[in-house]
Amino acid sequence: MVSSYSYDRARYGDREAREALVARLRPRMSKMAAHYARCTNENADDLLQEAWVGLLDALTNIDVSIGDPDQYLLKHARWRLLDAVKRWRRRRCELLEDEQVAALPSSMDWNDVQTDLSIRAFTGALKPTQQAVLKSLLRGMTWREAGDELGCSSANVAYHVKQIQRQYQEWSTAG
What we know:
The protein contains nine helices and no strands. It is mainly alpha-helical.
């Protein structure tokens, strides 16, 4: 059992106390980062670094009189790690800026133009709610996030996705 005194020392910057804390929690932190790296296909070292930042941030607010301090620190490390995964995924799905679009190759052949026109024709035939759901999902949102943005539940979003799929099947077989 680790005394509350050692947590207080670590919180206020005592090097030996922090090193002892790091040594004690390193195996669990490494396992946590490796687990989430397998689940999310992110780099384990990057996840571990984010987890350590979360743990050290939580160390400043730790209350040793409530619960197990190690569990508190590990919980905050996990939250920071998962927030980082969410940030990285959103960044990958962000819309391109004008400078990035200008840097893309501008040569389009006739098939690209036809495809673009076909997509516009299909999406133009959708109902406004279906168009809003489609736009939200194409921006990389989850069904729950899209539902929150549109003021409905994720079940409603799932319904609209099924309707869009059904309409696409009808549209593609007709054309």
